[in-house]
Amino acid sequence: ARQLIEEGNVIKVIVDTVMELLSEHLDANHRFHFQGYNSDKFFRIQVIFHDLRYILISKPSVWTEELRTQFLEGFRVFLGLLHCMQGMEEVKRQFGQHIEVEPEWEAGFSIQRQLRHILVMFQDWCSSDETVLLLSFKECHRALMRCNNQPFQSEATDYYMCKHILHVSPYKVSQEPVSIHLPISRALAGEENHTVHRAVYVLQESCDFTWFAEHPLRCVVLAAQVSAEMWRRNGLSLVSQVYYYHNVKCRDEMFDKDVIMLQIAASTMDPNHFIMLILQRFELFDVFNGSLASKDQELLKQWNRLTEEMLYLLIIIVGERYVPGISHVTKEDVMMREVIHLLCIQPMAHSSLVKGLPENESHETGLETVIPKVATFKKPGVSGHGLYEVKKECLPEFNPFFFHYSKSQHSKAEDAQKKRRTQEGNDKALRPPVPPPFCPAFSSIVRLLCCDILIHILRRLLQRAVEDRATYWTEAMIQRVPFASLALFLGLLEEKAQLEASTVEQVSFDFSLKARSELIGSEHGKSVFHLLSKMTALPSLEAQKDMIKWTLQMFEMVKCLREKSSPAASMSIVPDKDKAERKRKAEAAKLHRQKIMAQMSAMQKNFIESHKMLYDNMPEKSLIIYSSLPSSTSKLCVAVGPQRGSTPAEREVLTCILCQEEQEVQARSPAMVLTACVQRSTVLTQCRGKTLANNETLYPLFMPPDLAVGTHTGSCGHVMHATCWQNENAELVGQLLTLPRWIQILSARIKGLKSVTQGPGKDSCVISQSNLSGESPVKYSDSIAEMLVVCATTVHRVGLQTGPNELCPAVPVMSWNTCAFTIQAIENLLQEEDKTLFCSLQNRQLAGLKAVVQFSATQRLKSSQAVIQKSSTRSGYNQPFSVCCQVGLVLAIPALYQEEAVDLQPSAVSSAYNHLYILHLVTMAHMVQVLLSSTDDTAVSGGEEGEEGEAERAAAELYAAVSQCTGGSVADRVRRGVMPFLRCAALFFNCLTGVPPPEELSSTTGRYFRALCSYLALPCDVFQLFQEHRGTVSPLLQRWCGHPAVTKALKGEIYPRKRNRLIELPEDYSALLNRASHFQCPNSTDDERKHPTLCLFCGTILCSQSTCCHSQLDGEEVGACTAHAATCGAGVGMFLRIRECEMVLMASKTRGSTYPAPYLDDYGETDPQLGRGNPLHLCPERYRKLHQLWQQHCILEEIARSLEVVNVMFAFEWQML
């Protein structure tokens, strides 16, 4: 690059090319005006600047004469480009009406952003050689003098204040044209910051620094007036320009350089003249001179806002010294200060910090070098990001007037730090830190703090506050004054430092004396110190009282230093008094609270005594606390059979979330419903990807053992009116009714029903009603009956993917099917998370499950009894018994009590025995299934005669020996296999009968199996069921086990069933990228790999968003992921887009959303689109959360939640994914 500069003068060539392309945008004043520019052509021009950045990427360590000559020539040409930008696109305040057409502003800021790093690189080149630095400084000065937008258009005028005269030309930003683009002025400020001090001395005699400060001061005033809403008729274009003026993307070469230029002017000008100039440009000179008054509230509001901004600018000029060259600080110190103030707002993620910091020419912020010194990293949980928190020892560096804060950031930071100090037991005074001393060339800036004009300004503001005239001051304005405004604070601090370093006679800085003086600036003769003391009694400034007291303490400290007394002794009195006062107030508040609580307690006792009759007649609400049940009542914790415990008689009153009306839940009351989400699910499938048979051949009551697809019903637990939703003697019976007798009666009833449907025959049998005792069924209101139909048809439509049909025989059966599957899904989730069965469910899960069970139980009352009877008497129990079969039998048995002329339901005793014997039969059948599905034939084989018998016995002995060594046995395997079924049965009967479970079931250890059997009225040794009912069960087992269909269905089955999990992902994301790079689309002939997408259910990589893999689904063209989700997840999908590093959740062909990937970088953040490029690693907690999202059937809920948050104008075509 240096060779190209020396031999080819490449800087001049590049800049000339840019100027040639931009020449068409020059106006009559030879300044750029980009209205109506071509964006494509303009983009090409911006690309050329990358060549210039490459040329300047490395500054030389050794300069040759030829390099100096060519570089300076190129720098002059570059200043010509800046000359065309100086003052371009001027704006003038709009009066009367709003601007009609928004002016173009993006192009100018685009060039400004491209030149941002180039300007810094030019300054670095110049600062590397003293000769080049001096010559470039003079060239920059000449270029500024040649600019045709001269600062003054009229003759200079004298302005008087406090016996000081300012001779300057009048100019009002609110009335004259002003531009925010001042690249030459800012380049000069940057050059001066690198210039040796003799260059400043050479220019001091011939330069008017008032002229240097004019344009930067106008920009600052323009931003202040925009903030005061004086330019609101100029539209959003000006607001956007001011935003970028302060934004991190542009501020280092715009706002920061303007501040440096103002500091340069403040260091060379008379301090009184400098502040008078600021007052004049802020159009506040007459306000503080006492010659202007108004009753216009809008104008007063503007003056107040401008006064705040003016004071803030003075704080910045005097207090912001963290710039190399302004004070003795390094770039690392500057970066540490930036990071500390960002983290004082709130803990931030690494990416948020990077966005809030300026980048250098290499797109680096330097964050990694300073962050360990100022912050600690807090690792992320299952959601959110890893956060950096500022170290406690760095908190004293917080400055509430940090000049890079926006107004919202300032408020957040101040609130956060006050809250922290309150929690620590400290006062709310946010004391600014001690700034580093100025370099000698800028040390005269501190003279601003003790000049007459500033004392006058502070006195006028404090006097308005003491007089409590709210129209002339704001709390934000006063906040800066007692906070020392950095004027009071820095003035006192500067004086204190000088007094500690020198004798009183040698110190000329007399800020405290002027602040105590009563002779300056007012006819009342009251000092700043006196006014500040009176402010402590103002109730309107209660929030600032701590800061005011602290400022007064600083006054006393400086006074003690001047009088050569001990400041420590005098300063310790006030804090001790304040501490004692706070302690006294805290104790008084504590006694007051105790007194109030005692009064409330006495009033409650008096009320109860006076209304004792009311309390005696009031029925108590039955509440059963499981942990307090005595051991003698453990027999009540039985959910099945004649020994079933009593259901708590609890009056249930619910509140509709829509109309907020309360209603008691009763059978004859209007229906109260829960919102339900019905969806097909493959969470429990044992054969993922299996193609389902025709729906007409399936019978939902007998779910296949592989659980290929189920219908899950969940609820959010919100209760509402149905109308609102549409608009928005048991022992004696037990001795007689044994299991054989129960089976005999049931069989006879079934034969009788068949004879009715098939016609009379010789095998027909009619039994009396006395065999099955019954009673009249519960009658429900029309509203409840209507909602039963709505819910049943929804489950039928979703589960079988068919049209709504209330008369379909499968409607009640599908209700039982979804009830059973939902119970199994919940049990599977609790078992996997190792949670207890009854105490771990969320309220919404428990409410939803109870509603599903009760809905399924009452479904027979609305459905055709003939249809239910046909389902109950359906022959062909050749499928494996499951939870679905048990639920169907329990809920369908009451239909056997119905006849044409008699509408009955089983009595409580009959229901108890029905539940008991159905559970016994299905439990024994399930145990047999576990044995039949076992691969260890030797475990159950019997002895035979001859050699085969000897071999069988030897094998059995070997198996017994191995089982003894390993601790496993047939009984243990059966118990493990039957445990999920028993847990599901316990959940089902708990929701059906309402009998509370025993205390032992609240734990997963100890006597859990025994307590579970006791709750279900089963013997603790479940094998005793076969011993007790040997004669009855043996014929059933022979017929059932000998059926070939049963053997075929149980082939390959393993109990307990395996729990499905998401696939295992590699720990390093680069392994996934490598796998995706080897993926070839099977349907594409080219080498393009499109968008490889990984299914987390089965691990298949698909070619998404590509026409080559489109297929037909229900007569509609869909993408590969949508088609795969239909077979792999019953329409639900969870995919990882590998190249984009983001998740895609799908719930149907037309509904989906994106979701953060479970891969995080070292800072605990995701990297969507792989934009940052940091190494990514798998976060087990987040992947576990994804797994829970799937297992809990919450994918659809998550998609709905994301759609509420993200609003897009054009919907994404999820079916083409």
Automatic annotation (TrEMBL):
Pathway listed: Protein modification; protein ubiquitination
Record keywords, A-Z: Metal-binding, Transferase, Ubl conjugation pathway, Zinc, Zinc-finger
Domain E3 ubiquitin-protein ligase UBR-like C-terminal: residue ranges: 793-1192
Residue ranges of domain E3 ubiquitin-protein ligase UBR1-like winged-helix in the record: 335-430
Statement: the UniProt record of this protein carries the keyword DNA-binding: no
SUPFAM superfamilies recorded: Winged helix' DNA-binding domain
GO cellular component, one term: ubiquitin ligase complex
Region Disordered: start-end pairs: 410-431
Family matches, as Pfam families: PRT6_C (PF18995), WHD_UBR1 (PF22960)
GO MF: ubiquitin protein ligase activity; zinc ion binding
Keyword Zinc: yes
Gene3D superfamilies (alphabetical): E3 ubiquitin-protein ligase
EC code: 2.3.2.27
Catalyzed reaction equations: S-ubiquitinyl-[E2 ubiquitin-conjugating enzyme]-L-cysteine + [acceptor protein]-L-lysine = [E2 ubiquitin-conjugating enzyme]-L-cysteine + N(6)-ubiquitinyl-[acceptor protein]-L-lysine
Bias-annotated ranges (Basic and acidic residues): 411-430
One example of a Gene Ontology biological process annotation: protein ubiquitination
Family statement: Belongs to the E3 ubiquitin-protein ligase UBR1-like family.
PANTHER family: E3 UBIQUITIN-PROTEIN LIGASE UBR1, UBIQUITIN LIGASE E3 ALPHA-RELATED
Role description: Ubiquitin ligase protein which is a component of the N-end rule pathway. Recognizes and binds to proteins bearing specific N-terminal residues that are destabilizing according to the N-end rule, leading to their ubiquitination and subsequent degradation.
Name the record gives this protein: E3 ubiquitin-protein ligase
Source species: Hucho hucho (huchen)
